[in-house]
Amino acid sequence: MGAPHYAGDVSVGGRSNGGGTALDSARLRELLTLALARMPVPDGSEAVLEGSLAEGFGNVASDVDFLVLADGDASYAGTPTVLFADGRRIEVRLRSTGEVAADRDALWRLAARGPGAAARIPDDLLNRCQRLARALPLGDGALAARVQAALPLDELGEIASASFAHRARQAGRLAVALLTLADEAGAAMAAETALTFGAKAWAALRGETYVDAKWLPEQLRRVAARGGADAATAQRCGALARRPAAAAQAGAYVRAVLELLPGLGVAGCPLAPERVSLRRRPGVTTWPIAGRLHVLRDGREAFVLGERAARAWRAVVFERPLPAVLERAPEAGPSIAAFHRLGLVRLAWRGGGTIAGAPATTPPPGAARPALTLGGATPDADAGEVTLVPLPARRFAAAGMALVWANVMVENAREDAVGALDAGQWGVLAVVARRMLDWAARSLLSAYGVDPLPAYGEACARLAELPGLDRRLADDARALDARLAAHDAASGRAALADAEALVARLRAPLGAADFPRSFADAAGWRTTLETFYDWVRIGAHLDSALPLDELRDVLLSVEQRHARV
């Protein structure tokens, strides 16, 4: 192992970075020596300075980025070695000429695939090639020059410009869509992104190919300093570089950016709302439960829609121009924008495919407790119109089925208690009255997302663990469970009355006050099945585990009943 070759002065190998570095050659030589003394490098390798300092942007606080080139086809770790020496943070990357050639071939091959190829160019691939192409060799050896000769700056500028223009075009189309949806703030953010990458696409054709957008102001300043017609364009980009803070100015800002983009060489994103439409997103399904709309994303997350969002969701028509959708539901725009942000729908541009945007976001889980009721998830009034259920989708379905089934079993135990009271079976009455309490407690635990449920007989004791639950309710349930007894008609009637009263309190947060008397008659059983059916459908879709073996019988009876309809 040996040190790379470098000479006494920084050489640019015939390439100019547009304006020197913040460190002189002696200082760079000193830092390189300190770095290489702490890490092995192959014999005969050469070092170059890359990154913002090599570009002439860096300052005294910038990282010092060295790339050590080793001739051959060896593979090295892609991550840099980070060192701190003499008050500077130093990054040293080691790459072989074979790795560099493979990157070069991959980038040029992608770029040659015609229209749309820019969308397939990974940022890190472009970045690696660009940094090396603009690096400053720290010596007079031939290795760096040979490698850089395969990365012609004019061709690289065209590739970088096409990649930046693609991102600008997509952001511009997103700005059009969000402005149409009355999400002015979101549209302004998208327009700012469009302007950033539109300006970088324009500057890349003028030699400013650096990938990281943080140095765009310096790139524009350097282009403007050259004078001529480009100076005015650079200044115009600078003036629009930051979106306005005032919401009232957002629309005007979006329009100004969209008007400027064609002058930057970014076509295909005019202010034409009729070219925008909605598309289905794979993996998104809709599930009404007792009239409340729920949307599942990729079978993993569940969202519950508030009334306004539910109206907007029902108004969505895919593949129709966005203005036509909004004509049917003028107030739906902000909700549809939220659907897109959450990855529940896609936006498309006529003739241009899906509009690329930021990855789907996942909001904080709803804080309402209990998380579930018989009518589905509990919307969070403080979370907007779309609430993320604080349970994974399969657990949401399993807990919902368990919630309904627990209430069915409460009714089963009640019927047993009534029969025992009539027959004077005081021991049985005490057992089934306690069973009523246990199942009611299990239904409340399910509503809070507890899954799997505790063993039989433990549910009342576990209520104290539920966050936000009235502690008096938990204490009363545990106390009644411990003292319930019957030894004659009077104590039997009192025990049943006490159990029913506490069951009513346990059911109150669940929307189950009017839960049907499932075992009283055919009408009660039919209503029970209707209550259960929505939960069973979503559970079957997600292949959620049925909470009890008996549920399989209920599922079969539900499916048979609907098959006859």
What is the number of domains? 4
The spatial strand order of the largest sheet comes to 3-4-2-1-5
How many helices? The count is: 20
Which structural class do the helices and strands define? alpha+beta
Low-confidence stretches: 1-16, 561-565
Rg calc = 34 Å
Determine the strand fraction and express it as a percent band: 5-15%
- The helicity comes to 40-55%
Please tell me what the overall shape is: elongated
Strand tally is 14
* Main β sheet profile: 5 strands, mixed
Mean pLDDT: 88
Terminal-residue CA separation: 81 Å
Task: Describe the protein's architecture and organization.
This protein has 565 residues and is of the alpha+beta class. It folds into four domains: 25-151, Beta Polymerase, domain 2; 158-271, Four Helix Bundle (Hemerythrin (Met), subunit A); 275-362; 391-564. Helices cover 50% and strands 12% of the residues. The protein has helices spanning 25-36, 52-55, 97-111, 123-133, 142-149, 153-180, 184-204, 216-225, 229-239, 250-260, 307-315, 322-328, 333-341, 393-423, 426-447, 459-462, 471-483, 489-507, 522-542, 549-564, and strands at residues 46-50, 64-70, 81-85, 88-96, 136-137, 276-280, 284-289, 292-297, 301-305, 345-349, 353-354, 372-373, 376-377, 386-392. Strands 3-4-2-1-5 form a five-stranded mixed beta sheet. Strand 12 and strand 13 form a beta hairpin. Helix 6 runs antiparallel to helix 10 (250-260). The longest helix has 31 residues, at 393-423. The N and C termini lie far apart (81 Å). Mean pLDDT is 88; it is low at 1-16 and 561-565.
